[in-house]
Amino acid sequence: MSTQVYLAQARASLNSQDCMALYDKWAATYNDEVGDDAQDYVAPVLVAQVALKSSNNPARSVILDAGCGTGLVGQALATSGVKAIDGLDLSNPMLTVARKTGAYRNLAQADLTRRIEKADNTYDIVTCVGTFTAGHVGPDPALRELVRVTKRNGIVIATILEEIWVSGGFKSEVEKLKRENLVTVVSDELIDYVKGHGDKAVLVVLEKVDRAWTT
Ligand SMILES: C[S@@+](CC[C@H](N)C(=O)[O-])C[C@H]1O[C@@H](n2cnc3c(N)ncnc32)[C@H](O)[C@@H]1O
Predict the structure, then answer these.
(1) CATH number of residue 12's parent domain
(2) Pick from 69, 56, 59, 62: which is nearest to 159 by CA?
(3) 153 located within any domain
(4) Residues within a 6 A CB radius of ligand 1
(5) Per-residue pLDDT averaged across 207-215, rounded?
(6) Ligand 1 center from residue 10 Cα (angstroms)
(7) Model confidence at 87, in pLDDT bands (50, 70, 90)?
(8) b/e per residue, 111-128, with b = 16+ CB within 10 A?
(9) pLDDT band at 160; cut points 50, 70, 90
(10) Which residue, judged by its Cα, is nearest atom 27 of ligand 1?
């Protein structure tokens, strides 16, 4: 199948099981089709650059890459010297490819539509690229969970496909987290996500507030 067919099918998934089955099948060819070779899936490198800029000491940052897939974000971070990167994803075959990169400290299967099995205030930075997409993971509880596992004054950096930013409830969930004084919105700009296909996404950067209450 081509990237466009895989993407269309992934975005049309009706539940996590369908989505997982699709990525289980796609894992072996995903990198060749969307990664460096194709030169048009720019989101992972963009997000890694934002993460590196937001840290005073990237080499000592502890980072969670949620929905890590085959590890494109982790690889971009590791190349710049980040050592402690954990990854979570629903698809074991995607995690197997990520493991082979050697970029991650720890990788585990997890469903981001549920509570994340990590303690509050664990990570300096949390990234989530390409996973807030139609047919994948919705805003609630995932955004709140990403904030919960982030340290106070830490940063959550996520891409959300433009077409679901408002209609999928992501914008209103971010506003809710802000109203609850859990985060400040550092930025929410539109970026080129997959250049070749004209896809755009909102790149949202949230800072967890100092006194954030979470559980
Ligand atoms: C487009 S890929 C992005 C992967 C990687 N972040 C990247 O940028 O290449 C979407 C990823 O979301 C994962 N995913 C989909 N639904 C998920 C869920 N409910 N929980 C965790 N991961 C999920 C898929 O397995 C897939 O690896």
Answers:
(1) 3.40.50.150
(2) 69
(3) yes
(4) 16, 19, 23, 43-44, 67-69, 72-73, 89-91, 94, 110-113, 129-131, 136-137
(5) 76
(6) 10
(7) very high
(8) ebbeebebeeebbbbbbb
(9) very high
(10) 69
CA 70–ligand 1 middle distance (angstroms): 9
CA gap 39, 3 in Å, rounded: 13
Nearest-CA residue for ligand 1 atom 23 is: 90
Residue 13: per-residue pLDDT: 83
Q: Is the residue at 213 inside a domain?
A: no
**Containing structural domain, residue 47:** 3-208
**Residue 112 C-alpha to ligand 1 middle, in angstroms?**
9
Q: How confident is the model at residue 197, as a pLDDT?
A: 67
Q: How many distinct structural domains can be found in the chain?
A: 1
Question: N- to C-terminal Cα distance for the chain?
Answer: 42
Tell me, in angstroms, the distance from the centre of ligand 1 to residue 41's CA: 14
> Which atom of ligand 1 is found nearest the CA of 23?
25
Please determine, for residue 207, whether its predicted confidence score (pLDDT) is greater than 80.
yes
Residue 204 φ/ψ, nearest 5 degrees: -105, 135
Report the C-alpha gap between 110 and 33 in whole angstroms. 24
pLDDT of residue 39: 53
Task: Return the ligand 1 atom nearest residue 94 CA.
Answer: 27
Residue 143 lies in a domain: yes
Least confident window among 105-109, 183-187, 202-206, 210-214: 210-214
Does the residue 48 lie in any domain? yes
